[in-house]
TrEMBL record:
Coiled coil: none annotated. Keywords: ATP-binding, Nucleotide-binding, Transport. The lineage of its organism: Bacteria, Bacillati, Actinomycetota, Actinomycetes, Micrococcales. Residues 4-240 form the ABC transporter domain. InterPro entries: AAA+_ATPase, ABC_SmlMolc_Importer, ABC_transporter-like_ATP-bd, ABC_transporter-like_CS, P-loop_NTPase. The keyword Nucleotide-binding applies. This is ABC transporter ATP-binding protein. Transmembrane segments: none annotated. The keyword Membrane does not apply. It comes from Cellulomonas edaphi.
């Protein structure tokens, strides 16, 4: 099979009671971007490092185009790496950092100085930093550094790019913008990539498919819409942000099913926003537990009979006190079903 193959990969650290990666099998097709998503300590980085060749395998195999790379040293795998902190060379300027990436490739622009500088300019333009060649690394913002790290890693046209939480040191709004830009760059260059993150939104923004890991095991791998609409288990659903579960046969499910239409699974999973606080006669009611404000809207913790505590959305500025009973409209698009 072309692309990256993981076959029952096991990573075990000396002295650890359980393996960090415990029999993970996955395939990443050429040109595909796969996110490894999971809580801290679930083994995402260990798996990525095993693919890179930075950690030895305790079991299983890593293949590229069907051939094992287990005995191929890190620098001969043709895989690029981007880390959380970019790891730029501070004694080189931006252009020097990107040109370093070129020198590790075996491609034709290596031969001429003008070919090299043209390629550096092209890569900087690709990552949104046209004209930055002579800037000192120390003068760059965190987001700019990560863009340079990406350009440097893409310079030798790696057959696989491995990104370990490349955006997690940045603040939220910058992270959201860069996630979109990162996907655009990976798609524009047709780069096959594996992207590690603990942030669901980021995984969904960057990847074609998302692999959810917990305790070193693969729980589910699917496209973002499939994963969101059909989480394979409560564990996956909880990790994606579903916060309440109602069996389909439960009386409390009736108004929910009226909003979603018939569903095939046996349990409904409710995400934040499955209820919207609405005045007037509504299908459901809840008792306010508390109110917080986030990103220009109010989030109201409400206790809904038969469902439990959930986060309902409300217009910003609206005021309630704990104990108030509020009407709730149901948004079927925030309700998934599982077996
Ligand atoms: N070098 C190491 N030596 C021993 N144990 C390690 C080492 N690196 C990681 N571990 C352990 O392996 C498990 C998986 O760690 P890993 O860093 O792969 O998880 P992660 O999902 O990437 O976490 P995070 O999001 O916090 O980086 C953890 O229990 C961790 O403590």
């Amino acid at each position: 099979m072309n692309g990256l193959g993981l076959h029952d990969v096991v990573v075990r650290y000396p002295g650890a009671t359980a393996p960090a990666v415990d029999g993970v099998s996955l395939h990443v097709a050429p040109g595909e971007v796969l996110a490894l998503l999971g809580p801290s300590g679930c083994g995402k980085s260990s798996l990525l490092r095993a693919v890179a060749g930075l950690e030895p395998l305790a079991g299983g195999a890593v293949t590229w185009d069907g051939a094992s790379v287990v005995d191929v040293p890190v620098h001969r795998r043709g895989f690029g790496l981007v880390f959380q902190d970019g790891q730029l060379f501070t004694h080189r300027d931006v252009g020097g950092n990107v040109a370093y990436g070129l020198s590790s490739g075996g491609l034709s622009w290596r031969s001429s100085a003008s070919g090299r500088s043209h390629r550096v300019a092209e890569l900087l333009e690709l990552v949104g930093l046209a004209g930055y060649e002579r800037r000192e690394v120390a003068t760059l913002s965190g987001g700019e550094r990560q863009r340079v790290a990406l350009a440097r890693a893409l310079a030798p046209a790696p057959r696989l790019l491995l990104l370990d939480e490349p955006l997690s040191a940045l603040d939220r709004s910058l992270r959201e913008r860069l996630a979109v830009d990162l996907r655009a760059v990976l798609v524009a260059t047709g780069t096959t990539a594996v992207f590690v993150t603990h942030d669901q939104d980021e995984a969904f923004a960057v990847a074609d498919r998302v692999a959810v890991l917990a305790d070193g095991r693969l729980l589910q791998v699917d496209t973002p819409p499939e994963l969101w609409l059909r989480p394979a288990s409560r564990e996956v659903a909880r990790f994606l942000g579903y916060e309440a579960f109602v069996p389909v046969g439960d009386p409390a499910a009736a108004p929910l099913l009226a909003a979603t239409g018939p569903r095939s699974g046996s349990v409904l999973a409710l995400a934040e926003g499955a209820f919207v606080v609405t005045p007037g006669d509504t299908a459901a009611k809840g008792t306010v537990l508390g109110v917080t404000s986030r990103r220009g809207r109010s989030e109201v913790r409400v206790d809904v009979p038969g469902v439990g505590p959930v986060t309902a959305l409300a217009p910003v500025g609206a005021r309630w006190d704990a104990g108030d009973v509020v009407g709730l409209r149901i948004d079927g698009s925030a309700i998934a079903s599982l077996d």
